[in-house]
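Hey, can you fold this one?
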Amino acid sequence: MIKQQKYLCFVLVALCCIGWVACTQQRQPCLTPKTASLIIESIHLTTDTSTVPVDTALIAAVFTPLVPGKSASPDTTFSQQSLFTISLSPDDTICQWLFSTDTLTTIAPDTLTFHYQRNLQFLSNACGYTYFYTLDTVITTHRIIDSLHIINTSVTNNVNTKHLQIFIRPDY
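Sure. Predicted structure:
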């Protein structure tokens, strides 16, 4: 009788352990980038006729987000790059960034104003939701920037897509 009780106790403990392990859900890791990033390429115009654009790495380009009602936001500085990644605000349909080609420049930075639409996008069960964006327009001042060109209006989590080209004035 005692042998049967030990056996029954062992079977019950084993079943409980199997049930506990079977019910434990392991989450899949999110392997997809969750943040939609806007990728900007800078191109330096070498002449006033703008016929010879050169893809040039900027020494120390600075992007500073302008957030209404808040103190100065941290700068994003890029060294020796011609491609830059910034984020759009998921809280609004307009955001602004200051852009300077060098940390030591005496020229006031240009303001880039992005107008866009937000689209809530389901990525996966592991990653959840994020916002993707559709660029409508980009308005800029023209201190350092000669002009700009929107290449792709769809801003997603694809890190290989260029969205905007900024043409730097030839006299800079």
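Helices lie at 2-23. Let me know if you want another pass with a different chain boundary.
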